[in-house]
Amino acid sequence: MIDWLRDPSLGVRRWLEHRVRERITTRGLLFLSAALLVGGAGFASGNNLLFLLLAAMLSILLVSSFISRIGIAGLELEVHLPEHVCARQPVPARLVLRNAKKRMPSFSIRLSGAGSEVFPADLYFPVIPGGAAVETTVEARFPRRGLHAEDSFVFSTAFPFGFAERRARVTMRQDVLVYPLIEPQPGFELLLAEVQGEAETLFRGLGHDFHRIRPYIPFESARHVDWRATARTGELQVREFAREQEHLVTIVLDLEAGEAHRQWFERAVECCAYLAWRLSQRGARIRFRSQAWETLVPLENDVYAILKYLALVEPRRRASPLSPLDEPSVKVVFSAAPARLEECGWVDARIVSPGHWATGEPAAPVSG
Known about the structure:
Elements: H1 2-6, H2 8-19, E1 22-24, H3 26-45, H4 48-72, E2 75-80, E3 85-86, E4 91-99, E5 106-113, E6 122-128, E7 133-140, E8 146-148, E9 152-157, E10 164-171, E11 176-179, H5 188-202, E12 210-215, H6 227-233, E13 237-241, E14 248-253, H7 262-281, E15 285-290, E16 294-297, H8 303-312, E17 330-334, E18 350-352, H9 354-359
């Protein structure tokens, strides 16, 4: 409605696109003009031969419209997308075009996206046999994160004579959840390097600490047998070390962000997705937190649970600040209002705020 008020001509064009299913082509206009001229000449001269010619020309127009209508009827489209889709990244989409008419083929079919940026390709199928299906793969690109529903396609054909192009709109009844972009952007790789460096320092040496000497368990590797303890006790004894503890990184997304920080919030969401994806690939444990949801990867969920949440998250005008948990971890907090974090006890947390994106400088930890 708003677009209609701003640009009435745009509203009229959109209405025509949805309502008018047949468009006269230039060739059709020329043929129709010739038919009108023949008809005018026939009425002016009373020549029956001209009336016969006019009837033949009008019959050709009717037959052409009927054949194009039959050809485009009974076409079904299936769209198969990968299970995981990220915004602004090309993904292969498998299209299956099926002709439900058992005996009658469809000729000269064009398939295009209905004003959508997702499927920009314009496909052409010379013939689709009756009862058969043709399959092709195209590149799809979703411009933004979130839930995409009811993307439309348009079938069109000008067969057989090209006098008119008949169109039929098909809606994809499939909800597609699109994750945020997980590719590096300016500043993302630097932040990842900072987080990894701090994690290496914090968790250094935990996998090699001696824990105890215990009796040997059958079929256990003899690599850590302690021969002195074995000689002293007369039974096989092995050295046991503390279990290797993977790095724990806490990623916090503060949902309080005004309209002025909307663009920054979108970039913060993408940075959270980038960090979660890269850190999970390197085996780190990730605790993700926001005012609405939190999880621990990989103990409670996999990284795709974080990406699914980030695909739908929206900023809030008001949100109570979170308090830090009492556990050793590298903390990264994305907040549009970093001043209130010190009051909540976020000591030694790495803060990413709108100023960080503006300067591109490393995110400095909050000092205690």
